[in-house]
Specification:
- This protein has 11 helices and 10 strands.
- By secondary structure, it is of the alpha/beta class.
- It has a single domain, classed as TIM Barrel, CATH 3.20.20.30.
- Strands 1, 2, 3, 4, 5, 6, 7, 8, 9 and 10 form a 10-stranded parallel sheet that branches.
- β4, α3 and β5 form a beta-alpha-beta unit.
Length: 322
C-alpha cells in the first residue's frame, strides 16, 4: 500500500499563507517518505484559501521535493480543455522526472459551471469525452488535428497514472471501463449506511469491471488527524469542522442540530491517539482492497505545526502499524 496525503490548501490567515504552508507540507511529506502528495482543485474559494490552478502549484512542489509523487484529487475535467490540461501535466511530469499522476472528475457545483460557461447537465458527458482525449494526448497520440501531438511528451508512460473520482457504483464501473484507477472520497453523503459499507460495494464493482492487463489501483481518501489524544486533536480542528458542518447543513447535506461526534461520524473521521486510529482503520471495510491510503486533514484546518506533527505521526506510527 502506498501512503499519501491530500491538502485542500486552506489556512486561517488567507490564501498566501495557505499556499506557503501547503508547500511546506509537501517538503515535509517528501522527507517523511510519503509516496504521493495530492491537491484538490476548487474554483470557488474555501475558508482560508482554496486552489484554483493546481499545476503551477505542483510544478513548484516538484522543484522543492526529490521523490514524492505529485497528483490531483481531483482536477475538474469538464472545466478544463483536455489538450491544455495534458500539456500542463506533461510539463510538470518532465520537470519532476516522471513523478506526476492525475486524478480527474466532474466535481464542483452549478455556480462554478456557470462561471465557466459550461452546462452543468453535460458534466458526465464532458468528463467522458475529456478523459478519452486526455488519455490519448498523454500517450503521444494525434489529437485535435491531423498530425498534432502535445509537447513535451510525458517523461514516462501514463497508462497506470490516471485516476477518476467517483460517487456511485455506475461511476466506479465507468472508471474501470475507461482504464482509470479509482479514487474514493473521504466520505459519502446522503446515505444512512456508513461510508465504508457504501464504498466497499463501489470498489468491488470497480474490480469486477476491470479488464485491462495492468493491475488497477484504488485510492482511499480518509480524514485522519492523529495527536497525543482526542482532546488535543479536536482543539486543532474543531473550528474548521464546525464551519464545514454549517455549510453542509445549509445545503441540506447534513441535518441540523446534531452533536460534534455525530457530525464526525458523517465525515467518517479518524482522529485521536495513533493507536485509536490504527484500530479504526483496521476495521475499515475498503482498506483490504485499497492500494493507496490518502490521508487528509480537511475539513479540519490545523495550523502548520500541528499539521506537520500529524504527518509525522501518520508516517511513523499509523502507517507502519497498518
Amino acid at each position: 500500500m502506498r501512503l499519501g496525503f491530500l491538502t485542500h490548501v486552506q489556512g486561517r490567515n488567507g490564501s498566501a499563507e495557505a499556499y506557503r504552508n501547503a508547500q511546506e507540507l509537501f517538503v515535509v511529506a517528501d522527507e517523511l517518505g510519503f509516496d504521493t502528495g495530492w491537491v484538490a482543485q476548487h474554483h470557488a474559494p474555501l475558508q482560508g484559501g482554496g486552489l484554483s490552478s493546481p499545476w503551477p502549484f505542483l510544478a513548484y512542489a516538484a522543484a522543492r521535493t526529490r521523490r514524492i509523487r505529485l497528483s490531483t484529487a481531483i482536477t475538474i475535467l469538464p472545466l478544463e480543455h483536455p489538450l491544455r490540461l495534458a500539456e500542463d501535466v506533461a510539463v510538470v511530469d518532465t520537470l519532476s522526472g516522471g513523478r506526476v499522476e492525475i486524478g480527474v472528475g466532474s466535481g464542483s457545483g452549478p455556480e462554478e459551471y456557470a462561471a465557466f460557461g459550461v452546462d452543468v447537465d453535460r458534466k458526465r458527458e464532458l468528463t467522458t469525452s475529456g478523459l478519452a482525449t486526455l488519455r490519448r494526448a498523454l500517450a503521444g497520440e494525434e489529437v485535435g488535428a491531423p498530425g498534432f501531438t502535445i509537447q513535451p511528451l510525458p517523461a514516462a508512460d501514463f497508462t497506470s497514472r490516471i485516476w477518476q473520482g467517483v460517487f456511485s457504483g455506475p461511476g466506479a464501473r465507468f472508471a474501470a471501463e475507461a482504464g482509470a484507477n479509482l479514487l474514493l472520497n473521504r466520505a459519502t453523503y446522503g446515505y444512512e449506511e456508513p461510508t465504508d459499507t457504501v464504498q466497499r460495494v463501489w470498489a468491488d464493482e470497480f474490480l469486477a469491471a476491470w479488464d485491462r492487463p495492468h493491475k488497477p489501483r484504488i485510492g482511499l481518501s480518509r480524514f485522519v488527524f492523529p495527536a497525543k489524544d482526542r482532546k488535543t486533536a479536536l482543539s486543532q480542528i474543531e473550528d474548521g469542522l464546525w464551519h464545514a458542518t454549517e455549510g453542509f447543513v445549509r445545503r441540506g447535506t447534513f441535518p441540523a442540530g446534531l452533536s460534534l461526534d455525530d457530525y464526525l461520524r458523517r465525515f467518517h473521521a479518524f482522529i485521536g491517539h495513533p493507536d485509536e486510529i490504527v484500530e479504526a482503520l483496521r476495521a475499515e471495510k475498503v482498506m483490504p482492497v485499497a492500494t493507496d491510503l490518502i490521508t487528509q486533514f480537511n475539513p479540519g484546518i490545523p495550523d502548520l505545526d500541528a499539521a506537520v506533527h500529524a504527518l509525522e505521526l501518520i508516517a511513523k506510527e499509523v502507517a507502519p502499524a497498518i
